[in-house]
Design brief:
The complex is a heterotrimer. By secondary structure, chain A is α+β, with helices and mostly antiparallel strands. In chain A, about 50% of the residues lie in helices and about 20% in strands. Chain B has a six-stranded mixed beta sheet with strand order 6-7-8-3-9-10, with helices on both faces. The mean pLDDT of chain B is about 85. Classes of the chains: A alpha+beta, B alpha/beta, C alpha+beta.
């Protein structure tokens, strides 16, 4: 009988039920879209912030503290290097997937047509493979993504895969003007260790000292500086979590952390824990956070996440109010019908249970539809803003379901109270 | 003098004949009861007379003028000016008090006038209840407000659809007394009902069955 | 006002005031919609400004350099910097670089103004304190490690000053002049005693420098020349910045201003993403909310079909019914819009205080926009069910369920 009453209610009131389901669906879709965007926005903005370039630099770990301050001969400081093989270790650490790009840097002084110029060897868009313990790691990486602010004013970015050989270069606008060269020209580069003839692929404007340099492939720089198989510095760009108290504490000295704290710190993508892991993997290297990038990144991420969280909160409040509002009014509208049920002897509990079942069933249907609508909205937001999909979180789905059912029940409270107060005679005789 | 004439009025809903070639003529000042079981076509007839519905075939002549072909707007105006309606379910606007409910009819007709509206309420014996909302009035009181509303624009015809259907006997008598009084004053009355007691008090009783008039006779007991 | 208009008002007001629970339901829906509209609107308009300020944590986005081989003096720097509106100028810091010796090893000394250095380089991590005057220094971390320097240590910088025939020796009366035995050049040794007040960590090349005040550097170098570079931090977007820089470059022939592309270009990339994020989120949430408001209004009106039928039966013209119900909706819409814009402002301000620790810029224009939007949405939402109710035969509505 109960079942028949429920299905009866749906059949007779399908229009009103549809309205409730529609509103619930709208509310649920707002909640779904906003929660998912909120949960994913950190990663998305983090990727965007990679435009600022690397946030970690890796340099040789010089233990060369002057032991005796006053007994040092004036000598040329000896350059220190890291072996090229160590680059692969970036792909083996715990947070390897958070490392979006990295590139080795090897700089040396060269002479071009009588001008002393700084030459920098690096990877542009390099296909890199690394074998360790039977696993092959590979990655396409290089400074093309670490210098997003470069304007290529002549020629194009160097595409290592498409060029044969390695004798190519990109030069800064200033250097190009000084040498009077343009893209496609060849320059002869001399150093104490040798001579190379390089073809200029592109000319860039960077607005900083790099415009005074020539960028070439790592192997050319290695030959010109006599440092085969070596590099001086690596720039690493990693997606990191904003620093919090734990990260600050760990940054001072990881050894001071308790066991649990250490585990949490190690397994969180703080810039300090990523640096720590790089140093673990490459003992002869020292990984440092580039404060300008890492700190600002943290700040902006934190602000964006908080902003989105509050906007989400606002939308959730709006959605829940809207839903509970409609639920309340739609139950009240049926006071005559409910009074009739009371008049024919239905108990308060039975009517309440009937009404709640109807409403909750409708809400669940609406929420399910709303979840998929919300999924679509989240993807629209993801694609139009970040040109990538928003990851749907199971937690958001769960949260939306719980929220909707809770809101529906809460929205029914005034209605239920009305049912309890209802006097059949009044309603049935009180006009319409 | 004839007030209203139905000539071969037919109303079809699909293949169902709600009214089948009904002809009826009503004089000015007459009090007619239309009776019949449910589904006999009473309501359809009432709707057609009150211009809320049009016949499929046939003519409706009011005051000698065929109104069957009038435009919707013109029908609305006509209906507003000539006819007062009383419903079984009263149909008062629940957020307006008694006097305001009467004034709504004035508002749509011509010009609202609170004094006149109060006089109308006085006539149905509700002057002291003028500021009450429908929910604060008893069923009988609500129906009296409804009658006051029907009267306010001095219509030529009052159409009442089961006016006592929701009332107890005491209130029924009050309403019927009101009708008597109206009849005395020369107002034409058409009362649709299936209550024999209500039918008995009318001047003339028309019986409908399956969309056809099966009897039409003057009421002998009718006392002038 | 004639009787008819008075009755009209009486009906509308009665409907609004005597059907309190229903009206509260409708009003609440509109208030929620208007709150979201004005709140998100304010946030959307304020986000670029607030976020732009956050991006200043990347530090200087403009550098001034001498346009020829000379140096920039403080007057020309002040002139140039005055181009930036004072509320957008976060700060500017001059730098003068000199080579000097510490323990006979060459090091780079940078003279700067410590009072503004954190404005243009907010990312500097300093253990110890920022120097608060002459005689104190900030030492780059790498250099400190190399020389084993810690906070509180004292050391002295040495400048071997070469004396040529042109040198005005009266400026250095107290110094002992000696001759290099190999080259025969004359030098005088001038030292500057410094105390380490802080160690600087940045992860960049700054860690190789020793920072002192400009006065100390002039003292050590025995010359008071201008600066090599001035870092400026301006809270302005790329295009706006460009117009300021053009202005500076037009005005001054002693220095040239350039954007720090890494900062400006990246900022506009990220900021535009953030803006479009907030925009589309606002759009989606608003659209859904407005539909929500509309469905609620439709439900509220649909409930009154019977009343509409009755009014028709009483002889009301369709148009007058539409006008009556619409005016009710519009009163509700306007009231909801006003309440909503106030609540929206409060909400946006709370968000802004929480996220950016600064209050939101109030935009009076958003109030009429919120009111017009809620009135329009309410009006449209009412119109649909009214129209359909008006089209229905009153006889049907009045008769049955």
């Amino acid at each position: 009988m109960f079942f028949r009453m429920i299905t009866g209610a749906f059949r007779r009131q399908w229009k009103k039920m549809l309205m409730i389901a529609l509103t619930v669906a709208l509310g649920a879709s707002i909640a779904t879209a906003m929660l998912n965007v909120m949960l994913d926005v950190g990663d998305k903005i983090n990727e965007e912030l990679k435009a600022y370039g690397s946030n970690i630099t890796v340099v040789p770990n010089s233990q060369a503290v002057m032991s005796d301050l006053y007994a040092v001969e004036e000598t040329e400081t000896k350059d220190e290097f890291l072996k090229e093989e160590t680059l692969g270790e970036f792909l083996t650490i715990f947070w390897a997937n958070n490392i979006t790009d990295f590139a080795p840097v090897l700089d040396t002084s060269v002479n071009v047509n009588g001008n002393d110029i700084q030459l920098i060897g690096t990877w542009f868009d390099h296909h890199f493979e690394f074998k360790k313990k039977g696993t092959v790691y590979q990655r396409d990486t290089g400074i093309i993504n670490l210098r997003s602010w470069w304007d290529i004013t002549d020629g194009k970015w160097m595409d290592e895969a498409k060029l044969s050989g390695d004798q190519y270069a990109m030069t800064g606008r200033k250097t190009a003007d000084m040498l009077g060269v343009s893209a496609g020209d060849r320059i002869t580069v001399k150093s104490s260790k040798g001579t190379e003839e390089l073809e200029i692929v592109g000319i860039f404007e960077s607005g900083d000292d790099e415009e005074d340099c020539i960028f070439t492939t790592l192997s050319v720089a290695q030959r010109l500086s006599g440092a085969e198989g070596k590099y001086k510095k690596a720039e690493v760009s990693a997606i990191t979590s904003p620093d919090d108290e734990l990260a600050v504490k760990a940054a001072k000295n990881p050894d001071l952390l308790s066991g649990d704290e250490y585990d949490l710190w190690y397994c969180t993508a703080y810039v300090s824990s990523i640096c720590f892991q790089i140093q673990e993997a490459i003992p002869e290297a020292s990984a440092r956070a580039v404060r300008q990038i890492a700190d600002s990144e943290g700040k902006i991420l934190e602000k964006t996440e908080l902003l989105m969280a509050l906007i989400t909160l606002m939308s959730l409040i709006g959605a829940t109010l809207g839903i509970s509002n409609l639920v309340t009014s739609s139950v009240m509208e049926r006071s005559a019908e409910l009074a009739l049920m009371k008049a024919v002897g239905a108990k308060n509990g039975q009517i309440t249970f009937l009404v709640l079942t109807e409403i909750v069933l409708t809400s669940i249907l609406g929420a399910a539809a709303g979840y998929f609508m919300g999924y679509a909205f989240a993807q629209v937001i993801g694609q139009s803003v970040f040109s990538s999909a928003i990851e749907m979180s199971g937690m958001a789905a769960f949260l939306v379901m719980v929220l909707i059912i809770a809101v529906t029940l809460v929205g029914s409270i005034p209605a239920v109270r009305m049912i309890l107060r209802l006097r059949p005679s009044e309603v049935l005789h009180g006009g319409h | 003098m004839k007030l209203l004439e139905l000539k071969d009025v037919t109303k079809r809903y699909g293949s169902l004949y709600a009214l089948d070639k009904v002809s009826l003529s009503i004089d000015k000042g007459e009090w007619i009861a239309i009776m019949g079981p449910s589904g006999s076509g009473k309501s359809t007839m009432m709707n057609i007379i009150s211009c809320m519905d049009r016949p499929t075939e046939g003519q409706v002549i009011f005051n000698g003028r065929d109104i069957t072909k009038d435009s919707r707007k013109k029908l609305t105006e006509f209906h507003r000016d000539k006819i007062g309606l009383v419903f079984q379910q009263f149909h008062l606007i629940n957020y307006l008090n008694a006097v305001e409910n009467v004034m709504v009819a004035q508002y749509y007709h011509s010009m609202p006038d609170e004094k006149e509206a109060l006089e109308a309420l006085e006539r149905v014996g509700l002057k002291d209840r003028a500021k009450h909302l429908p929910s604060q009035l008893s069923g009988g009181e609500q129906q009296r407000v409804c009658i006051a509303r029907a009267l306010i624009n001095s219509p030529e015809l009052i159409l009442a659809d089961e006016p006592t259907g929701n009332l107890d006997e005491a209130n029924e008598n009050i309403v019927l007394d009101l009708f008597r009084q109206l009849h005395k004053e020369g107002t034409s009355l058409i009362v649709v009902t299936h209550d024999p007691e209500v039918g008995e008090v009318a001047e003339r009783v028309v019986r409908l069955e399956h969309g056809k008039i099966i009897s039409d006779k003057k009421n002998n007991q009718f006392s002038e | 006002m004639n009787k008819k208009q008075r009755m009209f008002l009486r009906m509308v007001l009665a409907s609004l005031l005597r059907r309190r629970s229903r009206m509260i339901v409708a009003l609440l829906a509109i208030v929620v919609g208007a709150t979201i509209l004005s709140g998100l609107g304010l946030i959307y308009y304020d986000v670029p400004r607030q976020m732009s300020a956050q991006f200043r944590s990347y530090g200087a986005n403009v550098i001034l350099t001498p346009s020829d081989d000379s140096y920039m003096n403080s007057i020309s720097i002040k002139n140039a910097v005055s181009v930036f509106p004072s509320d957008k100028l976060e700060g500017y810091t001059p730098y003068r670089y000199e080579n000097s010796k510490l323990n006979n090893l060459p090091v780079t000394l940078a003279g700067t103004d410590f009072s503004s250095v954190l404005k243009t380089s907010p990312y500097w991590h300093i253990s110890g304190d920022l120097p608060d005057g002459n005689g104190k220094t900030l030492v780059g971390k790498k250099l400190a490690e190399k020389f084993g320097l810690t906070v509180g240590d004292g050391f002295s910088m040495l400048n071997s000053f070469q004396i040529t025939d042109n040198t005005d020796t009266s400026a250095l009366p107290d110094y002992e002049i000696y001759t290099d035995p190999k080259t025969g050049e004359k030098f005088c040794d001038h030292t500057l005693d410094l105390k380490v007040s802080g160690i600087l960590e940045t992860g960049g090349s700054e860690e190789d420098y020793i920072y002192v005040t400009l006065d100390d550097l002039s003292d050590l170098m025995l010359s008071e020349r201008g600066c090599d570079i001035v870092e400026v931090s301006v809270a302005a977007r790329e295009d706006e910045l460009k117009s300021y820089l053009d202005e500076i470059n037009k005005r001054s022939d002693t220095l040239s201003a350039k954007p720090v592309k890494r900062v400006t270009a990246s900022e506009s990339t990220v900021l535009s993403k953030l803006e479009s994020l907030v925009l589309i989120v606002t759009a989606v949430v608003l659209a859904l909310t407005m539909i929500c408001v509309a469905t609620t209004m439709m439900a509220v009106i649909a409930e009154r079909r019977r009343e509409i039928g009755l009014r028709k039966a009483l002889g009301a013209l369709d148009s007058s019914i539409v006008i009556e119900f619409l005016s009710e909706g519009l009163v509700l819409g306007a009231a909801g819009g006003i309440i909503g814009s106030v609540l929206g402002y409060l909400f946006a301000d709370a968000v802004s205080m929480n996220v950016f620790s600064s209050s939101i810029t109030f935009r009076p224009l958003l109030i009429p926009v919120a009111i017009i939007a809620s009135v329009t949405v309410t009006g449209l939402a009412c119109l649909i069910p009214i129209r359909s109710a008006v089209d229905v035969d009153p006889a049907l509505v009045l008769k049955g369920e």
